[in-house]
Design brief:
single chain, 483 residues, alpha/beta, Amidase signature (AS) enzymes, eleven-stranded mixed sheet, globular, binds glutamine, EC 6.3.5.7, ligase, Amidase_dom, AS_sf, ATP-binding
């Protein structure tokens, strides 16, 4: 039963082949048995899950239907869940029980999804390896000595290991797409404003976006359907109708114009990944797509701009964790300053502290123009590059990451080396565009992802291309040994 996709689960439940309660029990037992190897969960919510599963079974018995009714999922541990620990992977929030549900959590619960637990993540979503979590590193089910990617590494490892069919995640600079690539999953970062950020603990508010991680594009369509939509509680949420994402999956790719940026194939790209990307281009050409070389000339400036803007926003967002309003409080403070310093010094790990310092520096009076303002100008140039490219093509295609998943600990002493791995993903966040990563093959037994980018609100098109690709390839069906 653990091999079933969301789409297959929906059919099985509708045909009464099994109940949501049976499925939930099976998956909870599987998590108990296998997750100790992976560390993909921070909290399990067995009681809630069984209660939700029984309620979903009762709703089905009453004639209700729906693709998510009774479907087991998990939430990245930065989505607030009422009465349940929401740690953000940090000691700072180790004992924080959210007083309300995030909009995404509430919407999925209303659709009948069953929450099995909260997944591990890099502390405050800062990282690309899931090694900065206060709850320890997550292991990649494809090779337990390698990282699963981050920051949504727990969601990715759990879905890849077939502990559950799909999970929520968030992407500020690649944290849905990069772990999807590293674990052979399909992951979608929606257009900025498509999915509500209310109750999603902020890292960098102008870049953060929630989205689905699953094994197939078909399942991403189902989960996104439950997550997307306008929310008056999020002032950056966009009031646009949500299309039926499953309805467009089968559109033909005949004549689809795919742009391949020449800057993507630079020296930093592992040539074995380049070859797999060329194979996926050929597969899409066979389906009728037309390939065109394009240019994104400002791409080279994206990493420095992102690593100014994201820490700047983080330094502001994380100021609320001061031991008074939110978060860990130190023992016996001598005075207010001592309370702030020690609470924050004890509560935040080294990567978070590094980013707060970088961000506060970039925003400080003497340096604001030189760093923050300059980075914002680069951000506009990156967006303009995309707008020009989308005049000529419908989709942009390239690798999701320059290298496959690295070994645990390999980049711990060199944060900049890890930042450079985000080269292909962060531009979509800077521009607010939707992006998807899907399985494209293996290098040394480790999965490789191909990334697709589309114009604003064209998530349906990304899912359509990925679904057609998955009907004609079988990379996404491969299962890691031992799971
Ligand atoms: N690796 C990037 C960072 O550390 C992206 C993380 C994310 O998308 N949350 O900022």
């Amino acid at each position: 039963m653990h091999q079933l996709t969301l789409a297959e689960i929906a059919r099985g439940l509708a045909d009464k082949k099994f109940s949501s309660e049976e499925l939930t029990k099976t998956l909870l037992a599987r998590i108990a048995q296998l997750d100790p190897q992976l560390n993909s969960f921070i909290s399990l919510t067995e009681d809630l899950a069984l209660q939700q599963a029984k309620a979903a079974d009762a709703r089905r018995a009453n004639g209700e239907s729906g693709a998510l009714l009774g479907a087991p999922i998990a939430h990245k541990d930065l989505f607030c869940t009422q009465g349940i620990r929401t740690s953000c992977g940090s000691k700072m929030l180790d004992n924080f029980k959210a007083p309300y549900d995030a909009t995404v959590v509430a919407k999925l619960a209303a659709a009948g999804a069953v929450t099995l637990g909260k997944t591990n993540m890099d502390e405050f979503a800062m990282g690309s390896a899931n090694e900065s979590s206060y709850y320890g590193a997550v292991k990649n089910p494809w090779n337990l000595e390698h990282v699963p990617g981050g920051s949504s590494g727990g969601s990715a490892a759990a879905v890849a290991a077939r502990l559950l069919p799909a999970a929520t995640a968030t992407d500020t600079g690649g944290s849905i797409r990069q772990p999807a690539a590293f674990t052979n999953l399909t992951g979608l970062k929606p257009t900025y404003g498509r999915v509500s950020r209310w109750g999603m603990i902020a890292y960098a508010s102008s870049l953060d976006q929630g989205g689905p991680l699953a094994r197939t594009a078909e399942d991403c369509a189902i989960l996104l359907q439950g997550m997307a939509g306008f929310d008056a509680n999020d002032s950056t949420s966009i009031d646009e109708p949500v299309p039926d994402y499953s309805a467009s999956l089968n559109s033909s790719l005949q004549g689809l114009r795919i742009g391949v940026p020449k800057e993507y194939f630079s020296a930093g790209l592992d040539p074995r990944i380049a070859e797999l990307i060329h194979n996926s281009i050929k597969a899409l050409e066979k389906l009728g797509a037309v390939i065109k070389e394009i240019s994104l000339p400002n791409m080279q400036h994206a990493i420095p701009a992102y690593y100014v803007i994201a820490p700047a926003e983080a330094s502001s967002n994380l100021s609320r964790f001061d031991g008074v309003r939110f978060g860990h409080r130190c023992e016996d403070p001598k005075n207010l300053e001592d309370l702030y310093k020690r609470s924050r010094g004890e509560g935040f790990g080294p990567e978070v502290q590094r980013r707060i310092m970088v961000g506060a520096y970039a925003l400080s009076a003497g340096y604001y123009d030189a760093y923050y303002l300059k980075a914002q100008k680069i951000r506009r140039l990156v967006k303009n590059d995309f707008m020009a490219a989308f005049n000529e093509v419908d989709i942009i295609l390239g690798p999701t990451t320059p290298n496959p998943a690295w070994k645990l600990g390999a980049k711990n002493s060199d944060p900049v080396a890890a930042y450079l791995e985000d080269v292909y993903t962060i531009t979509a966040n800077l521009a607010g565009l939707p992006g998807l990563s899907m399985p494209a093959g293996f290098v040394d037994g480790l999965p490789v992802g191909v990334q697709l980018l589309a114009p604003y609100f064209q998530e349906g098109r990304l899912l359509n291309v990925a679904h057609q690709y998955q009907l004609n390839t079988d990379w996404h069906t491969r299962t890691p040994t031992g799971f």
